[in-house]
Fold these 3 entries.
Entry 1:
Amino acid sequence: MQFTTNYHTHTARCGHARGSDREMVQAAVDAGIRILGMADHCPYPGVSGPAAGVRMTLEQTQGYFDSFAALRDAFAGQVELHIGFEAEYFPGLFEGMLDFLADYPCEYLILGQHFDSGDGGWYYGRPTDDEAVLARYVEQVIRGIESRRFAYVAHPDLCRFVGDEAVERKHYLALCQAAREYNLPLEVNLLGYRDRRGYPRESFFRLAQEVGNTLILGVDAHAPEQFADPAVMDDCCRWAAQFGLPMAATIPMEKRNLS
């Protein structure tokens, strides 16, 4: 098993990634990626506050599609290039986001829940022993899964719960069961693995093993050179293989009822 497919790639438009669009695609090709999905952080109409600064703006959206449509042609025969977004599920805002995207040729969405509200609020990657935080994270992810708008769940174990193991099991088991019911893969995230961010968590993927989920590998690239460390990529693949779960090679390419 190796990284030959990656649907989780960001661009400098999100404000915390770097490198040109062409550099990102070239780095992926050089690393042996043959199916590449761009999934920058999706803009949300009407959202302000700190979290707005970690997503591309509404005004950048057309340029995003134009740039990668051109690169799809430029790299034809070298890589199969797809254009989507990493998005969050925020009640009251989600439908407005879908309405906005309906005017663009968005091929897929991946569900990456970072915050508990559109304008920022709690960042789920911060350590917490508060069950209410974990419960809120899992509820948002499950509601996103149930929306049927997403192709898979990115870093599903991002919520860094450091409290009672029985509490963690109860809530994360519900997330794994929902993903299995709706047949959505759960991502093993290379960025978290490489940077030791607290995810991917073995305890979480033992639950996925118990439930029988499907996994998917995601580079979560924020810079071109993050494709260029084969030793880490291979080590992450070996880590994922220990659970003996099926690994999704591709995801359906469609607008997933965005309009």
Entry 2:
Amino acid sequence: MKTILMQFDTDASPSTFDRVVAVDAGADELFSYGGISPENVTGLVHGAIFTRGPKDLKHTAIFIGGSHVSAGEALLKQVVDTFFGPMRVSVMMDSNGSNTTAAAAVLAAKKHLSLDGLSALVLGGTGPVGHRVAQILASQGSTVRVASRTKDRAEQTVAAIRTAIPKAQVVPVATGTEAELLAAASGVSLIVAAGAAGVELLSEATWRTLTDLCVLIDLNAVPPLGLGGVQVMDKGVERQGIFCYGALGVGGTKMKVHKAAIAKLFESNDQVLDTAAIYAIAETLG
């Protein structure tokens, strides 16, 4: 029986990136729909769950994408709420590549550092990827400083992470001034930059003064990069004793995680691949 992946995109046009990865990951058939919201998804879900018998539903799965993570999360909730009893299919949410990119970034850090007890700073921590990097790190026992230009925005993200992980050691920090940035970065072993494209969040001159720093990961591929002195193709390149990763250096792992997660969907019909589940898949890749 052929595997069918139904792509529900919250944007008007379904992502071509997600479509290519779905095909490369082995989906036999790909049905792509754009402009999907909680208000219009129910009929599509019914089409997915009522066309095959319960024993064959593992051959159908749903991928939720789009550029807005909050819209994707709302759509995921509605999809799951539409399922009942054995009438369900596996579903994955990776709007804006947030979950797979975050998982790949944490895997890169794990090559050099023990995550349990780690002190980390996530710059751009209130964005879709930064939020999930911080959440995954916290789930692994790290103490994470979640940074934004203003502390109130960081506090909102910290509250959301604590809702998902009640025991999370997450601290909101502001980085609007140079003094605030230096205070936020002091004493951390890992810095991940996940801010907006084309904005330098930390200069090379500044990070080279941080004596406890071991790993730098920049997830921005658009010049100027988020971390000065880190190159986009860096993949564990050592500079002054600090291991550096650029966006494309992490990107190869992100693609492996994405493909592995799609393949995982077809193993059973009852999986919900969210941030935690996608990171669990990433860990199996080593």
Entry 3:
Amino acid sequence: MRRYTALLLTAFVLLLLVAAGSSYLAGRERTGDHAPLMELTAYTTLPAEHASILAEAYETAHRIRVTFVPLTSAELMNKLQTDVEQGRHGADLVLADREVLLQAAAKGYFQPYISEQNDAVRSHFKDENGHWTGVWYDPIVFCANRDYLKTLSMIPDTWTALAEFPDVRIGITDFLAADASGNLMYQMIGQYGDAAAYQILRGLHPKVIQYAKYLSNPVRQAGMGEADISIAVASETMRYIHDGYPLKIIYPADGTAWLLTGSAVPLGTSGMEQSEAQLFADWLLSDEAQIALQAKNFFFLPTNPGTMAYKRFAGKNLVLYQQLPLFTAGQKHEFLDRWVKHIRLQ
């Protein structure tokens, strides 16, 4: 009998140990390294590759999983409108281009958010009422071959000077092929008026060696010596410079077009999701976000002057176009049609 009692006691103790161990492990999974991740949903017009880099970096550093929903500008606006009309909480954050942010803010789809981080951002990079804040931008620059520059006594550093410069081979992306390139035309028209803008484009046209289909091709052409100066986005130019191509950036002294990416918190985001969305919005303004992108060879210009990335940027005082009207799709189509008929095909 004593033998059976001992066996029963031993079995009971083992059961207690197993139960205690299971409780301990379950507690660790809830509160330790294996704790369930909190999740945020973000609507975005970013390329999927950029979004995945940011999501991975933020999850690794902060244990918050961000699920990006990639959308076109029109799709994102429709999503926000449907969410508001149906009283639905569709996304905790929006990360999109400036035009979408302006349109959505005008329709009242965002709630204001002001923090120490976004308060430091210059006024032309954000909404005056705090409904959205730009996190980085990508200007159009002159991407010049270094060997070509050595042959010049004077460097063309304005749009008019480049349009009138003799014997220069110019690389550029087709205005019909990429939003960033088309945006150059629209912003030129907004800044100078259509007559002056088309005059510049008319002067550039005979010097263009090829209207490329991709934003990277004009930069590659300048780096390989196939073009002397290319009109390109700064991010692609910096990527090729980082890879060792003999290029130099010239910032147009009379101003230039630019694309802005910014964040906003939609109506309907509240409670813990609202707090976490705001923290994520602040993180997008940090060096951590820029380092994550640069590690994958994506170089954008931060809007936050407090970051090291901003302080190291040699062209942070470049002149940006400030007359940026929101043209309709019909107006943009008309501008492109006029360019094709009266410049491209001439």
